[in-house]
Amino acid sequence: MKKVLGLALGILTAIGGFLDIGDLVTNAVVGSRFGLSLGWAVVVGVIGICIFAQMSGRVAAVSGRATFELIRERLGLRVGVLNLGASFMINLMTLTAEIGGVALALQLVSSVSYLLWVPFAAFALWLVIWRVKFSIMENVAGLVGLFLIGFAVGLFLLGPDWGELGRQAVHGVSTSNEKVSTYWFYAVALFGAAMTPYEVFFFSSGAVEEGWSVKDVARSRANVLVGFPLGGLLSLAIAGCAAVVLLPQLISVTALSQVMLPVAVAGGKVLLAFIILGIVAATAGAALETTLSAGYTIAQFLGWSWGKFRPPAQAARFHLLMIICLIVGVGTLMTGVDPIQVTEMSVVFSALALPLTYLPILIVANDPEYMGEHVNGQALNGIALIYLVIILAAAIAAIPLLIITGAGQ
Amino acid sequence: MTSNTGSEASRWLDAQLHLLDRQVLDVDGVPVAVVDDLELSEVLVGQEIPIDTPPPVITALLSGPALATRIFGGRPPESRMQRTLWVDIVEIDVVIRLGVGRDILDLAWTEGWVRDRIIGRIPGGRHTPQGEPNDERGRS
After folding, report:
1. Is residue A125 part of a domain?
2. Is residue A187 part of a domain?
3. Among residues A63, A70, A91, which one has the least CA distance to residue A373?
4. pLDDT for res A351
5. Which residues does A396 contact at the CB level (< 8 Å), separation at least 6?
6. Cβ B122–A312 below 8 Å, yes or no?
7. Domain limits at A238?
8. Which of A279, A307, B117, B135 is 20 to 30 A from A162 (CA-CA)?
9. Cα(B13)–Cα(B10) distance, rounded to whole angstroms?
10. ipTM of the complex
11. CA–CA separation, B136 vs B140, rounded Å?
């Protein structure tokens, strides 16, 4: 059990990154429109985030430095500020959406309008950040979030034609009349959703919170290799469920309830209850992840004292900043914006900000001054450089695709 | 560039690479600032420097509201920059460690202000998150 709990950081990071409210819906949208033909984008993203997170986790374990301190050191102030601005906006947008996501999930259970749940959800999140120990937070959110395995169970219960799903993954959906640009928009969105920078901020800062040292390099690797592939598998399961139930019926996904429709068909009320609980935990986990990341990025950039392992009074500006972020998030939601649309946009922006976050980590992971003997091996550097090219391509393509496709409409 | 403490005289430091934008931790390992600028001992500007003049040494690290000026040019008034004396530094590694506590330094007065006026007044603000021993562990 202790071993399992030792992986909670990776699991929570991945669930918060892959299965937050926007990704839950995006995966179902993709499944219902493209079947599993975009499965490859998830796989490419999972491998990418594994490499990226493993480098940042190893840097944090060996040098004790979290990602954003290094971004300022290695990119300098000007480019660093640019990255800070972009990353902070992504954090804030995702955070806003996740508060809405928790509220939407609670609405499904309670039939009380989600807007009434928003302040309550935000307050509960703040309490967790204020008072709950980091390890308890990650264990509870991570493990309950695992209830989303219900999507994989649902897919099996649906008893699909696996051959057909395989054909979709390899050859695409023949009946599909989607535009090529829309296909690539969703490819970038899925890639960006897998490789959101806040996952890396959270993972590396979490490693510092947990006091990882050189001894924990193997633990970092285990966290990465279990957490992220699991997250990717669950995203594929969601897309698979949608591909089996919604695609043939030409049902288009616009709301959270439709994401769960296939599971209800497959497993009835019991499985549905598990899924809803999982969604509450996953969105709450993502909200905590992004709120803390918002604090981590600014505090690390400006050299403030930060961390949940300190009493709030010893990281005063860090805590004040997170309170302000939560209030801004609640205020934004109260204007009635659609939380799901907010995160779909933020995913595209994260593809845009990714190169500026990835490059400094790659540089520092090769710097013996920081890493001693734990610098990147040649094989890892080879793959990491290939990914640098992919990341740059996604970043360049993100905005044009967003405009051409009207955000995938 | 040499330091005036003498202990690290054999080590080369690149101001841009090793000093600027580095995190400064106090004696307890708590982050207090990031280095924005350096203060050098007197350098004669616009005059011919005699051959036997000793090279300038770094007297202090400066931090403060330099974000805008470092991006757009210019410099904030000297009074607004907080000085960390070079002699207070005990180690320059991937972070800069000081031998003194943050309260003596008057670095980051905003941190103290926010703590005393806002965060410290919210219930639970001065306790370590539940269940954790009060460890000010400061990563090393």
Report:
1. no
2. yes
3. A63
4. 78
5. none
6. yes
7. 2-88+134-276+354-405
8. A279
9. 10
10. 0.82
11. 12
pLDDT in tens, A166-212: 888 887 765 556 788 888 988 988 998 888 889 999 999 999 999 99
All residue ranges of chain B with pLDDT < 70 are 1-10, 106-108, 130-140
- Residue A293 belongs to a domain: no
CA distance, residue B7 to nearest chain A CA (Å): 19
Strands B82-85 and B58-63: antiparallel
Check CB contact under 8 Å for A304 and B132: no
Looking at every residue in chain B, the average pLDDT score rounds to 78
CA A409 to CA A393: how far, in whole Å? 22
Please identify among residues 12-41 of chain B the ones whose CB lies closer than 8 Å to any CB of chain A.
Answer: 21-24, 30-34
Nearest to B22 among A73, A132, A310 (CB): A73
- The answer to whether position A310 is within a domain reads no
What φ, ψ does residue A103 adopt, rounded to 5°?
-65, -40
Indicate the fold that domain B15-121 takes in CATH. SH3 type barrels. (2.30.30)
Instruction: Express as a percent the part of chain A with pLDDT over 70.
Output: 98
Residues of chain A in contact with residue B71, where contact means CB-CB under 8 angstroms, are: 77-78, 81
H-assigned helices in B9-99:
67-72
Could B32 and A305 be called an inter-chain contact, meaning their C-beta atoms sit closer than 8 Å?
yes
Q: How far apart are the C-alpha atoms of A285 and A290, rounded to whole Å? A: 9
- List phi, psi (to 5°) of B56: -65, 150
The total of structural domains in chain A comes to: 1
Beta strands in A286-327 (DSSP E): none
Tokens 């004292």 -> residue: A305
Segment A339-386, tens digit of pLDDT: 888 877 787 778 778 898 899 999 999 999 889 899 999 999 999 999
